[in-house]
Structure formats: structure tokens, C-alpha cells
């Protein structure tokens, strides 16, 4: 009897094997979002009790299983856990599989070294604004997103057109290079309104590196770089946003000025993740705002539409072809009589901007130690402008065309010698045309600027606790007789867990070409005031040194505490300055304002940044950052000297500024975000007629901008969500109270927070 049972069980077991099917070997790779192998990653198929790891040198993993659909779970330090119900079939058996893991919220950065680094291990201090942080600020553009960031101030510099610029550690916008996916395609002209031309729909994150950047990115990066990283989707998604902004207006004709924004983005990914696409589109409209009820705008009106997308296609398993394209059209106007034609206003500043931008890029891995990439990027900016003042000055129409082309190529090679070394070599060629016509002066600017550069960098991991970077870039700019050599050196020490000591030395330069504000003409006393370069203008050159201390503490009860202190020192030689053109000088025209740019000596900026972040799980996030700095020129401001005022401090630069922010998620889905942005006193130059004097020097009071937002994310089902939110910017209406009035005002006499008290109501939805 017992024997019969055994025979029966054996027959049943054999039958089960026959009917269950045959096992096959499936193999594939685990990679990061950029396609690099993830080594020693844990890979599990819980239903089959399989637990293994990827190969320690290639990232390869193998299974011997039967065909079918199984839940696969992949885990690795520095990445979000990956899980997917994956179908192992004949096609996968033939071609293999690839599991792409997303980085943890701490993110990976590329700006400081041009190679990927986890942010906590990056040798160059890099500030990262994630998508989540940008949303908490109720940001619509890069200008909004950069606010409440240590060492950064975004300011409005014109009551008419609302020209914005960003200051990094006290240096104005001319010294900051804006990058799109690490490519310098934002020209000098595009930078005038550029901060408001990059919508948040196209942004995945923003990386900021302060200090000289010429050793990596060429001229205009003396103050630092702002690198806007766009989205490469890893899964399919769709998001849409509708938002309205309401700005109460005081005065006899009090009312509410409105703004409306619509935006959407989406990601598409093929089954094998060999192809992906990202698209976005949107627009906004903003009415003009008049704070002092004088009939002239203090924030100009604007209308904008935009759209674009990225595509990614994996070829030959190790190569990727990507394309990017975006376009933007904007119309903005300020002054008075905005309901009438430009030429019928006492003062009107109207600008129509079209901008197209794109890139084609190929990158490929050659084995495990070498990869290369090359790309072509282009940008075209066209601006139609109108500047009209009092009748005696007449009207001025302008047309500016600014095409730009950039060729890039680089190669990285890793090898072992006294540790691990990564050598990066590359070259870049850029050309920019600037064609401008001014109907009033009947003048034309037709300039072409070219720059050829070579880059070499050594990234040396000598020990686990030390990393050294040595690099240099050589630029030959068409406006310079001799090449510019820009070296840099970085040292990272991590003597014990959580502690980082970053030391950086870098250099920079800025060529003497025409820059952005030359074509943004501030109307003063009803008259345009253009700027020209002197014939003997030399390039600016600089060096910067910074020293950072950072310590991250992770407690057993889910608290993460990270204090950091960063000291910086920047010296600029042959710094550019402007003064009024005097009678008898080139470009002088009787009865007309005009300024000339010249070399004025040295500029020095030094200071300390102090930051602290405290996080508890995903429930509480507290951050604060403060900057204490001194920024001054060797020579006093000539405009002020002409009226007996000796002033060497860099104007519009407070000696102390900072922010405090707090985010709470007390229950699932509910978000409470609040922040206070503090701007200390700063000196401002005021142009006009002051008892026979053309200028005066003012000092502002301290501004405290307080923002608050409440949002609730509710999932209608497993994937689809809606997220209504409501908030208020500048709750206390901490705003400048001495704005100029009337047609003869100094439209550039603007300081303090960019927006008055503003109510925000919006709804996000998607899957």
C-alpha cells in the first residue's frame, strides 16, 4: 500500500513538471536613469523565492525560470525601490531585459563636474531645487523657483517691462550663465527676460553652482551657473495645472489685477523602455499692476504661450539618440494708457519676443570604462520693441535678431591608477549673431561672436575619503586677441561618515561684447538711455575660492539633520562699469541720454553662507539659509561721484539676506508650506532731478516676504489624482513704498520683493 502511494506521488510530480513547462535562462541589466550599470543591486522574484544580485562589474543578472508574468523587486543604495509585474516571454529570452531605477530624492547632479554624482557625494557644492521644492513655492517660472535659495536674489529692475535678473552671491545677472541640460544656449540677449521664459512644466530640477564656472562652461559664468534639467520620463504620466493669481490694488480706483496660467506635461515610454518622449505646453496672462494709482504700471502686463518636448531612442543597446525642442512667444508692455496703441502713451515700453531652441545629441558607452557624446544645439531669439516717452523725444522702434549655434563633444575614460581616475576631454564651438535696428537713432548693430574652447579634467578618487579634481579650459573668443586659460581645482575630504569638507578654486572671464541690458533701454524722465561699449574695453577676468563644511546626521528615529557653512571670496579684474556719455565723446548726442561701458578696476565679493535643514521622515521638513556678504568696487560709482557722493559698494546688494521655510504633511495627502524671505537694507541709485542734482543714493529698509500654501493630493483611484491648492504670496504686503510716479519717473528705481500681496488658487490633476 505504501509503495502504491509513493508511485502515485511520483507520477503526479512528473506530470506536474511536464505540464508546468520548461525553464529558460533570462538575462538582462539593472541601470540608472542615464543608462549606467547599477552594480550589486538586490533583485528578487518573491513568488518564486528567487533572490540574487547584479554582477559587481557589469550589472548583469540572470534567472532560470519558466515563462510567465512575475513581480520583480529591485533594491540598491541611492535608488528608489523598483517593482514591476514583468512578463518573461520568448522575446525577452532573445533580447534580454533592462530594469531602470530612479534615484532617491537626494538626486544625482551633473553641473559641478559634468559627470554624474550623487548630491551628497558631489565634490563641488551644488544646490538642487527638486520638482517638489519648486511646487511648494507656487512657482510658474525659473524666476519664481530660484527665490528662497541661499545666496540667491531675484529682483525686478523695471517698472515698465518687468525685466528680472538673478544675483548669485552679490554679483548681478551678467555674471550668471543659464544652462539648459548643461548647454549654454541662453545668449546675452535672451537673458534679459529669460528667467520668466522657462516655465516649470519643462523642469525636472534646477542645479546651481556658485563661483567661477568658466573652466567648465566658458564666459559669463563668473558668478556661477544655473542649470535647468528637463525631464526624461521613466514611466507614462500626465499632469495638468490651472491657476489664477489675484493682486489687490490700492488707491482711489482700487481693484484686483488678475493673472491666469494653464499648463500640462506628459511622458510616454515604450514597453522595453527603448524609446521615450516628453511633451509640455501652456501659457499665462497677467494684467498690469499700479501700486500708487498714478496711471503708470509698477508691474507690466504680459501674455505668453509656450510648448516643446524631448525624445529618447536607445540604439545598439549602449547608444542613445535624443532630441529636444521648445518655443515661446511673449508680449509684454508697461507704462500708461495700456488700452491704447503704444505711440499714444506718454511712456510705453513694449516688447514682443519669439524664442526657438533645440538640440540633437548622441551618447554611447564603449565598454564599461569609456563613454562619449556629441551634440548640436541652437537657439533663435527675435525681439520687436517699442520705447516711447514724452513727445519731445519721439518714438523708437527696434528689431533685434539673435541666432546662436553650439557644437559640443566630450569623452570620459575611467581607469585604475593610485585609486580610480576619470579623465574628461572635450571641445565646444559656439557662434552668435546679434543684429539690432534702432529707428530713432537710425542705427544698426551687426555683430558676430565666435568662441572655440577645449576642456581637460581629471577626477581622481585617491581614497574612499578623498577626491581631487584638476581641470582647465582654454577659450579663444573672437573679441579677444589672445586665448584665455581658465584652470580649476577641487578637493573633497570625508574623514568620517556624514562629514564633508569641500575646497574649490576656480577662474572665470567675460568677453567685451554687447550684453543683455544694452538692448533693454530703461526710460528715465521719458527718455530712453542706451548703453555702448568703449573702444578700449578689455575682458573681465576673475578668480574665486570657496570652503564648505557640511555634516549630515541620521538618527534612529527617522530624523535627518544637516548643517553647513560655506565661505567664499571672488575677485574680478578690469570690472565693467557704466557712466554717462559726456560732450565730445564717441556716441554723444546733444539733448539725449546715453551711457558708456568701461573698465573700472577690481571688484571684490566675500562672505559666508550658513544653512540648516531638518527632516523627519516625509512629515516635517525645515530649512533655513543665510548669506552675510560684502561686495564693493575699487572705484566709486561715477554717476554718484559726479554729484559729490563717493560710493564703492555694489548697489542693490544687501549685506544680509536669507529665508526660513517649513513644510508639513500631518496626514496623507495634506501639505502645509510656509516660508519667510528676508532682505536686509541695501543701497540704491535713484536718477532724476533732486534740487539740481541728477542722482541721489537711497538705502532701503528691511523687507520680510511671507508666503503660505495649503494643498491636498487625493487619489481618485490607484493612479489618477487631483490636487487643489490655495495660497498667498507676500502676506504682509512688504513692498517698496517710494516708487516713482508719472511720465518722467526713473523706471529702474525698483527694489525689494518682486510681487505684492498675491492670492493664488489652483488645481493640479493627472496620473
Task: Outline the structure in words.
It is a single chain. The strands form nine sheets. The protein has a 22-stranded antiparallel beta barrel. Strands 3-2-5-6 form a four-stranded antiparallel sheet. Strands 10-14-15-13 form a four-stranded mixed sheet. The termini are far apart. About 2% of the residues have low confidence. 41% of the residues are buried. It is globular and about 95 Å long. Strand 2 and strand 3 form a beta hairpin. The protein is mainly beta and 767 residues long. The chain has six helices and 46 strands.
How would you concisely characterize the structure shown here?
With 767 residues, the protein is mainly beta.
Write the layout of secondary structure elements.
Blueprint (H helix, E strand, L loop, with lengths): L1 H19 L2 E9 L10 E4 L4 E4 L6 E7 L1 E8 L6 E7 L1 H6 L1 E4 L7 E2 L7 E2 L8 E4 H6 L5 H5 L5 E5 L7 E5 L7 E5 L22 E8 L3 H4 L6 E7 L6 E13 L5 E15 L5 E12 L14 E15 L3 E17 L12 E19 L3 E19 L6 E22 L3 E19 L4 E21 L2 E12 L6 E10 L5 E12 L12 E2 L2 E2 L2 E3 L6 E12 L1 E2 L4 E15 L2 E5 L14 E5 L3 E14 L3 E14 L4 H4 L14 E9 L5 E10 L3 E8 L2 E7 L3 E10 L1 E2 L5 E9 L28 E9 L1
Amino acid at each position: 500500500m505504501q509503495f502504491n502511494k509513493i508511485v502515485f506521488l511520483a507520477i503526479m510530480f512528473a506530470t506536474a513538471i511536464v505540464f508546468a513547462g520548461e525553464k529558460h535562462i533570462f538575462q538582462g541589466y539593472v541601470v540608472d536613469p542615464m543608462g549606467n550599470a547599477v552594480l550589486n543591486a538586490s533583485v528578487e522574484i518573491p513568488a518564486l523565492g528567487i533572490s540574487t544580485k547584479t554582477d559587481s562589474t557589469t550589472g548583469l543578472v540572470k534567472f532560470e525560470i519558466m515563462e510567465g508574468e512575475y513581480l520583480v523587486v529591485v533594491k540598491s543604495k541611492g535608488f528608489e525601490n523598483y517593482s514591476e509585474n514583468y512578463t518573461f516571454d520568448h522575446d525577452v529570452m532573445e533580447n534580454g531585459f533592462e530594469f531602470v531605477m530612479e534615484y532617491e530624492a537626494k538626486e544625482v547632479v551633473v553641473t559641478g563636474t559634468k559627470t554624474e554624482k550623487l548630491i551628497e557625494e558631489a565634490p563641488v557644492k551644488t544646490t538642487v531645487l527638486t520638482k517638489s521644492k519648486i511646487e511648494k513655492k507656487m512657482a510658474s517660472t525659473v524666476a519664481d523657483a530660484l527665490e528662497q535659495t541661499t545666496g540667491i536674489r531675484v529682483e525686478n529692475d523695471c517698472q515698465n517691462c518687468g525685466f528680472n535678473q538673478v544675483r548669485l552671491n552679490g554679483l548681478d545677472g551678467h555674471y550668471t550663465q543659464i544652462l539648459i541640460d548643461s548647454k549654454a544656449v541662453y545668449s546675452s540677449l535672451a537673458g534679459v527676460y529669460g528667467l520668466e521664459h522657462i516655465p516649470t512644466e519643462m523642469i525636472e530640477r534646477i542645479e546651481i553652482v556658485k563661483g567661477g564656472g568658466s573652466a567648465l562652461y566658458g564666459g559669463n559664468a563668473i558668478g556661477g551657473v544655473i542649470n535647468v534639467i528637463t525631464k526624461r520620463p521613466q514611466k507614462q504620466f500626465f499632469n495638468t495645472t490651472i491657476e489664477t493669481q489675484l493682486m489687490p490694488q490700492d488707491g482711489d480706483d482700487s481693484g484686483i489685477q488678475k493673472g491666469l496660467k494653464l499648463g500640462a506635461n506628459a511622458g510616454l515610454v515604450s514597453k522595453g523602455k527603448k524609446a521615450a518622449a516628453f511633451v509640455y505646453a501652456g501659457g499665462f496672462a497677467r494684467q498690469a499692476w499700479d501700486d500708487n494709482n498714478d496711471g503708470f504700471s509698477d508691474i507690466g502686463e504680459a501674455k505668453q504661450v509656450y510648448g516643446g518636448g524631448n525624445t529618447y531612442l536607445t540604439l545598439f543597446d549602449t547608444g542613445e539618440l535624443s532630441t529636444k525642442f521648445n518655443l515661446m512667444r511673449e508680449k509684454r508692455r508697461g507704462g500708461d494708457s495700456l488700452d491704447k496703441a503704444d505711440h499714444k502713451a506718454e511712456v510705453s515700453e513694449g516688447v514682443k519676443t519669439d524664442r526657438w531652441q533645440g538640440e540633437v545629441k548622441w551618447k554611447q558607452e564603449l565598454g564599461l570604462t569609456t563613454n562619449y557624446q556629441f551634440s548640436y544645439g541652437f537657439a533663435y531669439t527675435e525681439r520687436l520693441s517699442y520705447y516711447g516717452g514724452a513727445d519731445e523725444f519721439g518714438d523708437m522702434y527696434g528689431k533685434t535678431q539673435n541666432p546662436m549655434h553650439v557644437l559640443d563633444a566630450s569623452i570620459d575614460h575611467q581607469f585604475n591608477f593610485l585609486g580610480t581616475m576619470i579623465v574628461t576631454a572635450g571641445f565646444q564651438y559656439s557662434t552668435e549673431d546679434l543684429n539690432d535696428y534702432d529707428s530713432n537713432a537710425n542705427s544698426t548693430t551687426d555683430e558676430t561672436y565666435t568662441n572655440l574652447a577645449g576642456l581637460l579634467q581629471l577626477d581622481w578618487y585617491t581614497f574612499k575619503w578623498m577626491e581631487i579634481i584638476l581641470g582647465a579650459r582654454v577659450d579663444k573668443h573672437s573679441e579677444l586677441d589672445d586665448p584665455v586659460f581658465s584652470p580649476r581645482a577641487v578637493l573633497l575630504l570625508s574623514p568620517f561618515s556624514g562629514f564633508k569638507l569641500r575646497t574649490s578654486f576656480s577662474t572665470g572671464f567675460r568677453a567685451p561684447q554687447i550684453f543683455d541690458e544694452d538692448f533693454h533701454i530703461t526710460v528715465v524722465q521719458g527718455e530712453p538711455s542706451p548703453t555702448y561699449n568703449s573702444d578700449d574695453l578689455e575682458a573681465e577676468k576673475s578668480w574665486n575660492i570657496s570652503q564648505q563644511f557640511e555634516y549630515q546626521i541620521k538618527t534612529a528615529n527617522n530624523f535627518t539633520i544637516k548643517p553647513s557653512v560655506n565661505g567664499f571670496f571672488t575677485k574680478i579684474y578690469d570690472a565693467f562699469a557704466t557712466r554717462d556719455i559726456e560732450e565730445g565723446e564717441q556716441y554723444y548726442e546733444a539733448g539725449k541720454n546715453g551711457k558708456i561701458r568701461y573698465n573700472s578696476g577690481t571688484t571684490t565679493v566675500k562672505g559666508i553662507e550658513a544653512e540648516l535643514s531638518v527632516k523627519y521622515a516625509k512629515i516635517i521638513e525645515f530649512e533655513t539659509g543665510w548669506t552675510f556678504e560684502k561686495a564693493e568696487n575699487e572705484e566709486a560709482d561715477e554717476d554718484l561721484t559726479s554729484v559729490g557722493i563717493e560710493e564703492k559698494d555694489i548697489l542693490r546688494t544687501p549685506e544680509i539676506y536669507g529665508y526660513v521655510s517649513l513644510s508639513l504633511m500631518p496626514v496623507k495627502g495634506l501639505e502645509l508650506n510656509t516660508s519667510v524671505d528676508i532682505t536686509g537694507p541695501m543701497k540704491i541709485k535713484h536718477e532724476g532731478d533732486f534740487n539740481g542734482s541728477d542722482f541721489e543714493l537711497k538705502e532701503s529698509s528691511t523687507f520680510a516676504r511671507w508666503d503660505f500654501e495649503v494643498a491636498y493630493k487625493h487619489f481618485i483611484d490607484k493612479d489618477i489624482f487631483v490636487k487643489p491648492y490655495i495660497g498667498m504670496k507676500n502676506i504682509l504686503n512688504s513692498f517698496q513704498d517710494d516708487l516713482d510716479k508719472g511720465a518722467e519717473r526713473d523706471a529702474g528705481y525698483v527694489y525689494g520683493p518682486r510681487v505684492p500681496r498675491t492670492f493664488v488658487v489652483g488645481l493640479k490633476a493627472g496620473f
